[in-house]
Amino acid sequence: TILEVDASTGGITKPVARAKTKKQIMEKMVDLTKERIGDKNLHGAIVHTNIPEQAEQLKKKLLSQCHCEELYIAEACAVTAIQTGEGFISFGFYGSD
């Protein structure tokens, strides 16, 4: 499940898409990103729990399909890893002119 955290509502979280495989999830994440930023420059960060290869795959997809001004990968802190478990991936972003 792909969740969205809406900063304009004080952080309300809602599901925006579902997929059966991680590959489908990553493709949907890229599609949602392109839909949301349009032609703007992408600034983003990918955060994961012990899946660096998949984080790198997502980064490559974003680099090939968006105009990326900044795109970072980071491993989640221990507290996040305890709450989400191994295999968690998230992507926060915004677009700028």
Share of residues in helices: 25-40%
Q: Per CATH, what is the topology?
A: Hypothetical Protein Tm841, Chain: A,domain 3
The string of secondary-structure elements, in order, is: EEHEHEHE
Number of helices: 3
Largest sheet: 3 strands, mixed
First-to-last CA distance = 30 Å
Structural class: alpha+beta
The tally of beta strands, per DSSP, is 5
For the residues shown, what is the average pLDDT?
A: 90
Number of domains: 1
Radius of gyration: 13 Å
Q: What strand line-up does the widest sheet have?
A: 4-3-5
CATH architecture: 2-Layer Sandwich
β-sheet strand percentage? 35-45%
CATH class term: Alpha Beta
In the predicted model, the low-confidence regions spanning at least 5 consecutive residues are: none
Shape: globular
Textual characterization of the structure:
The protein has one domain (21-96): Hypothetical Protein Tm841, Chain: A,domain 3 (2-Layer Sandwich). Helix 1 (22-37) runs parallel beside helix 2. Strands 4-3-5 form a 3-stranded mixed beta sheet, with helices on one face. It is built from 3 helices and 5 strands. The protein is globular. It is α+β, with helices and mostly antiparallel strands.
How would you briefly describe this protein structure?
This protein has helices spanning 22-37, 52-65, 78-84, and strands at 2-6, 12-17, 41-48, 68-75, 89-96.
How would the blueprint of this fold be written?
Layout: E1 2-6, E2 12-17, H1 22-37, E3 41-48, H2 52-65, E4 68-75, H3 78-84, E5 89-96
Helix pairs in contact: 1-2
